[in-house]
């Protein structure tokens, strides 16, 4: 969850065949996806918001980290 609790970041796992190397940003209240972030080729296993909520980091199975 983002620091303000309004956004949930969900990484694409190995069984997410739509886009395994992406992160979906969802409205925490409704669960609706409002943005998809891409930048790694392997499944995203971990995500973390910065303390301000302005940046999001995602760690992938392909040993890369993306920062959006």
Features:
single chain; 68 residues; mainly beta; 6 strands; 0% helix; globular
Summarize the structure.
The chain is an all-beta fold and 68 residues long. Helix content is 0%, strand content 46%. Strand 2 (22-27) and strand 3 form a beta hairpin.
Q: Could you explain the architecture of this structure?
A:
- It is a single chain.
- The chain is mostly beta strands.
- The protein contains no helices and six strands.
- The protein is globular and about 30 Å long.
- The two termini are 15 Å apart.
Q: What topology emerges from the helices and strands here?
A:
Elements: E1 7-11, E2 22-27, E3 33-38, E4 44-49, E5 56-60, E6 65-67
Unreliable stretches, pLDDT < 50, 5 or more residues? none
Rg on CA atoms, Å: 11 Å
What proportion of the residues is helical, as a percent range? under 10%
Give the integer mean of the pLDDT values.
Answer: 88
């Amino acid at each position: 969850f983002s620091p303000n609790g309004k956004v949930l970041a969900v990484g694409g796992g190995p069984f997410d065949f739509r886009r395994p190397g992406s992160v979906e940003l969802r409205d925490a209240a409704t669960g609706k996806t409002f943005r998809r972030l891409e930048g790694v080729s392997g499944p995203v296993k971990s995500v973390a918001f910065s303390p301000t909520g302005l940046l999001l980091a995602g760690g992938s199975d392909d040993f890369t980290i993306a920062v959006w």
